[in-house]
Design brief:
With about 120 residues, this protein is of the alpha+beta class. The protein is built from two helices and five strands, in the order H-E-E-E-H-E-E. The model has no long low-confidence stretch (mean pLDDT about 95). The structure holds guanosine-5'-monophosphate and zinc ion (ZN).
Length: about 120
Amino acid sequence: MSHDPNCIFCKIIAGQIPSKKAYEDEHLLAFHDIHPWAPVHVLIIPKTHIATHAELGSEHAELAGRMLVLAPQLMKELGVTGGFRTVINTGPDGGQEVYHLHMHVMGGPRPWAKG
Ligand code: 5GP
Ligand code: ZN
């Protein structure tokens, strides 16, 4: 399990920065985005530090699958019934701000602030 001491999401995983957790297991953490774009807006992250989606290789297939599979489970648990949107921003041209791989999962009745 890799950890970057300068990474804000690694600090959230370590409990050094508080977050509103939505799900946790040995591989993944999900927490509510601090600036939500939608009524429900969670971030799903791997517990190991992977900077971007561009760094994912075939060795990460199971982990990436876990992230994808968690999204609908979590939306159901959070009462989202009308569908949801998943977004992964990658690198500077992808608008990524936090360099720890994360999947935005957004749902709830529209209108939304963004997207
Ligand atoms: P990105 O542009 O990298 O895809 O999105 C990063 C997201 O992380 C943003 O939506 C931002 O609001 C969220 N974020 C940044 N810092 C924190 C934090 O300390 N706590 C939480 N809960 N969300 C954060
Ligand atoms: Zn990290």
